[in-house]
Amino acid sequence: MSIGAHLVELRKRLMWAAAALVVGMVVAFVITDPIIHLITEPIRVIAERRGDDFSALNFTSVTSAFDLRMRIAFSIGIFLSAPVWLWQIWAFIMPGLTRKEIRYTVSFVASAVPLFFVGCWVGLLIVPHVIELMWGFTPEGGVNFYNAVDYYDFVFKLLIVVGVSFVLPVFLVALNVAGVMSGKAILKGWRVAILIATVFSALATPAADVVSMLMLAGILIVLFFAAAGLSMLFDRRKARRVAAEMASGPIA
């Protein structure tokens, strides 16, 4: 294909992806109420514990409630339309890939996407602990009026960060498959991996919330060792395949 044909193909793929995103946003906008109810549950728990009305989601402008729903609709719309825009990306790059590269790409996506959503789910479990812990530092007589947009940004960013951290072990396996790192080399870095997982968990969760920090760090460490073990298994298979090819080769 010429460069012009590639650009026409790219424009077509982008239009389909954008249309899917719009449809996903419309659907997501309809279900924003249960989503808002879910992520604001910690605020209601805080208000119940305080026994007053000084803990609530605060909308500081005329359009802030609509802005919050649009932010939620855009974020959820991306997830809902993911099968369509992922397919458009795949359909655009697939003609230029070899059969082996296609197999590796499918395996990577099939592993990374579920892990990302599992990470988001773990982040959703951590969010209430983080908010309630931070509320505990409110001085006597203080109030907790959470700006709606800032509150949602905090929750969304935490979910994304935890979700992406769950995908990192898949990148290690991808580096092993590409021949960049061996399984033993990955395993030798277990001390550094534990340190990074602990530091990341401490940054992603409040320092005083030891339970959430240990839970997140433990999951990341298990995923790292799983990636190292899988990489070592791939190395053994590769070594056996090379040995078999050498054994079956012609004798000089």
UniProtKB/TrEMBL annotation:
Entry keyword annotation includes ATP-binding: no
Transmembrane segments: 14-32, 72-93, 105-131, 151-178, 190-208, 214-234
Superkingdom: Bacteria
Chief location bin: membrane
Biological process according to GO: intracellular protein transmembrane transport; protein transport by the Tat complex
Membrane topology of the entry: Multi-pass membrane protein
GO MF terms held by the record: proton motive force dependent protein transmembrane transporter activity
One Gene Ontology cellular component annotation held by this UniProt entry: TAT protein transport complex
Localisation per UniProt entry: Cell membrane; Membrane
Alphabetically ordered keywords of this record: Cell membrane, Membrane, Protein transport, Translocation, Transmembrane, Transmembrane helix, Transport
One Pfam family recorded for the sequence: TatC
Keyword Lyase: no
Subunit text: The Tat system comprises two distinct complexes: a TatABC complex, containing multiple copies of TatA, TatB and TatC subunits, and a separate TatA complex, containing only TatA subunits. Substrates initially bind to the TatABC complex, which probably triggers association of the separate TatA complex to form the active translocon.
Function: Part of the twin-arginine translocation (Tat) system that transports large folded proteins containing a characteristic twin-arginine motif in their signal peptide across membranes. Together with TatB, TatC is part of a receptor directly interacting with Tat signal peptides.
Family according to the record: Belongs to the TatC family.
Protein name in the entry: Sec-independent protein translocase protein TatC
Lineage of the organism: Bacteria, Bacillati, Actinomycetota, Actinomycetes, Micrococcales
Name of the coding gene: tatC
